[in-house]
């Protein structure tokens, strides 16, 4: 039996007994050559553009010994089983192995399994199949398309932008997403809005003293110079039997004080009137200029004062509603990468390496080597009936019947182009709780396994239930028309949170018991100017989510795409957020001008992915797909060569030469800087 990795071979060999030899190919054994043979004028090495894109493969130099050993073993074997991974890449590796071992793909014994467990391996051996050639052809077409773009477009970048650069069907679109976000941020000017918040005490006699205590509390700073967190403020207010609320109405009209980024309106007058209606006395307006701000963001206004000691508010309505929170679907590749990035601070590449280790097998005490999770490259949220039953049994035994929904939960993929009917990423055994096997796992393995285990078990549990309370309080010492609203919620049944953990929502406050007509007194009223934030920079998690939404790449490629655009210097990470570089912007700008309506467009790249799906399903010939692609790309190559050189362009800067006073310019340097 031939698998892809030594770790996987070690796990499977345990289940097969002495009659089998399990060897690893260690990934791909053949690929297109990096250079054309001497005397050949092939513009794309290994691909004959004039004869139906016929590929020529060569054995990788570092795999020669592996291939020699596999050939030797194959000669003395009664059967050869191909157990490479179950995605298209794994299917292609199996096909390449048949080619070097002289096995007819139509009669080859191909087996796949979602999980490396004894039952799954035995089940796979009961129903071997032939090599799935449409899936092989889809992988081959993808490889050739990427090779064509890389070898025909990259040399143009060397001539027109800077040496050593590369273009790619997917990497260039991913870089474009980051670059365009950078440009959006740079061009962004904010709109302005105001909110007026208050802190109110149920003990009206204590309001005056609470005003000074609150000011002292809010003046605190931690070792990093940060004020109290929202959760700390909520806790302080609860200890003082007080609540936080927002001004929502003045004079019978909803409070809405805002201006868009093109408006020249001054909002201070409207804010001052609303704050006075709420009960703020001795209002002082201070205006300053933020030199780093843009548009309205340059004009910073602060309103301050003191709460009217005579101000009183009366509770006019209390609404309590029961709300439910549903568990998330089980992980697919992209959502696992997103969760590991945002919750563990783990890179997409590292996440996949750890998941691969868990899939291929870990040595557990009393069990030996066992695969802990199912295959980690999938875009399907499907779960087998056996997996669902396993989760439901665990929940009932561990937590009780109240945590098991009446009907099993099923999930459908939001990704219309989900490739194959694989399972979602899940543990191979629900009863194998993270803490029970922690001693056998590294710190990173335990963290990733815990994420996967919690998500899977929780997805089959019941909803969590909350009591959400909304309170309206109207000023009652005088008829100013000011109405504040406070909200809070209390968890009444934890449901799936018993597995995944109750989320910490810093904005939630637990309101004390009180009745309609209760009086409160404000001890802090704060008008706050707000400027619209620019679009956020992408993190690894949000970039993967964006690529998935746009249909760019596949589960197996997200991590490598991010690695490529970083290694090429098109983007950098600062504080775990992507920033486009000057060379990244230059390359993207050039490709958008030279290859518009082609591979640099998000919609075009998405269309290529759909065509590859059609090839994998046997609905389209791979050569037809390549002819269409290349016929559209070829004219663009000449047009791109006619584009002006990026180094010849300049942009005016904000700075002047200290010697002659002339305005300086931004230009692309010799190394793309």
Describe the protein's topology.
Layout: E1 2-3, H1 6-16, E2 23-24, E3 30-31, E4 47-48, E5 54-55, E6 58-59, H2 64-75, E7 81-82, H3 88-101, E8 109-110, H4 118-126, H5 133-160, H6 171-187, E9 192-201, H7 207-218, H8 230-239, E10 242-250, E11 253-254, E12 257-259, H9 268-278, E13 280-289, E14 299-307, E15 313-325, H10 333-344, H11 348-360, E16 362-364, E17 368-370, H12 385-399, H13 443-459, E18 464-475, E19 483-493, H14 497-500, E20 519-531, H15 540-550, H16 558-567, E21 571-574, E22 577-580, H17 582-594, H18 602-616, H19 622-641, E23 650-656, E24 663-667
Parallel strand pairs: 1-2, 7-8
Antiparallel strand pairs: 3-6, 4-5, 9-10, 9-12, 9-20, 10-11, 10-19, 13-14, 15-18, 15-20, 16-17, 18-19, 21-22, 23-24
Helix pairs in contact: 3-5, 5-18, 5-19, 6-16, 6-17, 10-13, 10-15, 11-13, 17-19
Folded structure, characterized:
With 673 residues, the chain is of the alpha+beta class. It has 4 domains: 2-131, Rossmann fold, CATH 3.40.50; 140-188 and 535-667, Topoisomerase I, domain 2; 192-323 and 465-531, Topoisomerase I, domain 3 (Distorted Sandwich), CATH 2.70.20.10; 327-462, Topoisomerase I, domain 4 (Orthogonal Bundle). It has 19 helices and 24 strands. Strands 9-10-19-18-15-20 form a 6-stranded antiparallel beta barrel. β4 (47-48) and β5 (54-55) form a beta hairpin. α3 crosses α5 (133-160) and α6 packs across α16. The radius of gyration is 31 Å and the shape is flat. It starts with a strand and ends in a 6-residue tail after the last strand.
